[in-house]
Design goal:
This protein has 167 residues and is mainly alpha-helical. The chain has a domain of 105 residues: Dbl homology (DH) domain (Dbl Homology Domain, Chain A), CATH 1.20.900. Helix content is 60%, strand content 8%. A two-stranded antiparallel sheet has the order 1-2. It is flat.
Length: 167
């Protein structure tokens, strides 16, 4: 009550929020695994349902609990922006809260970047599958930049041929 501040605390903890990017990257796969094993294994399904019935779970499913970390960083960012709007600019917490928002916004960008990278990797793997899974073109540093229809002009007779290009 003597120093009502949160900006300084969030500023110290915010760098750890970047780890949520890794969680977000693997979220879809984790959700799919839970779904698959719930369908495949009656024992797994029973254990999950049994745990979900416990009071500590608050009547929420495993999937709801798995979604919480994905929503956490955007929620922190939104709350901090609202906090700064309502905080007087001469407040002792203003600079720390502003710095915290900057760090949390960076973590949010990091998470969004991780999501985009995973989506691009999925697209790239689909391209590899379409091309017959040629092992010599599979490289972790490869990136799918663009794909689409193009017209190839023949050098000799300037006729146009349709092609599909992967860049």
């Amino acid at each position: 009550t003597t120093t009502p501040r949160i900006g300084d605390i969030l500023q110290k903890l915010a760098p750890f929020l970047k780890m949520y990017g890794e969680y977000v990257k693997n979220f879809d796969n984790a959700m799919e695994l839970v779904k698959t094993w719930t369908e495949r294994s009656p024992q797994f399904k029973f254990i999950v349902q049994d745990i979900q019935k416990e009071k500590v779970c608050g009547n929420l499913t495993l999937q709801h609990h798995m979604l919480e970390p994905v929503q956490r960083i955007p929620r922190y960012e939104m709350l901090l922006k609202d906090y700064l709007r309502k905080l007087p600019q001469d407040s002792l917490d203003w600079k720390d809260a502003e710095k915290s928002l900057e760090i949390i916004s960076t973590a949010a960008s990091h998470s969004n970047s991780a999501i985009r990278k995973m989506e691009n990797l999925k697209k790239l793997l689909e391209v590899y599958e379409m091309l017959g899974e040629e092992e010599d073109i599979v490289n972790p540093s490869n990136e799918l930049i663009k794909e689409g229809q193009i017209l190839k002009l023949a050098a000799r007779n300037t006729s146009a041929q349709e092609r599909y290009l992967f860049l």
